[in-house]
Known about the structure:
Blueprint: E1 5-10, E2 13-18, H1 19-24, H2 30-34, E3 50-52, H3 56-68, H4 73-77, H5 79-91, H6 95-101, H7 115-125, H8 138-141, H9 145-152, E4 158-163, E5 169-174
Parallel strand pairs: 1-3
Antiparallel strand pairs: 1-2, 4-5
Helix pairs in contact: 3-5, 5-6
Amino acid sequence: MASNKVILDVGGEKYTTSVDTLTAREKNTFFTELFARQWQLERDPKDDSIFIDRNGKLFAYILEYLRTGSVPNSVKNDELLRQSLVVEADYFRLQSLQNMLAKPTFPGTTLLESYQHKEKLNEFYGKPDQQWELIYKASRDGYEAKHFHAKCNGKGPTMTILQSTDKFLFGGYTTVPWSSV
Length: 181
């Protein structure tokens, strides 16, 4: 039986990992096809490595994602790095990483930051491709009802999301536009 250990030469950078690490996190990726054993892989006779013609420095982030399922926050704060990794995630067909690296789904909010939040709201709303817009944020616009109504009156339908002091999210949906009484 062949060893699970594999050496990748990505753009001149050598990485030692396992086939399991490269193939376990997501299905139908570059790596699941690479190691599907449907063809003979060409390996370097010196170290048995497999050459992949991509950016070797960026691959460190790809491999970290495959190992941990996450990327450092510094990636999300560096727009050039984030965009470069989106291209690499697309090449390696890592859909979950692409989603993770996507621009914020809800710009301006701190409550709803993930693609999963958008999917859950869209599921609740019944429209999978709904685009959301933040129209009121108490910490930005003011906590009084008059501030809420100044931003929300006449808007509809709307989804209201609140966060409890224990960090739980809850909310509601209305088709009726807001108005002051």
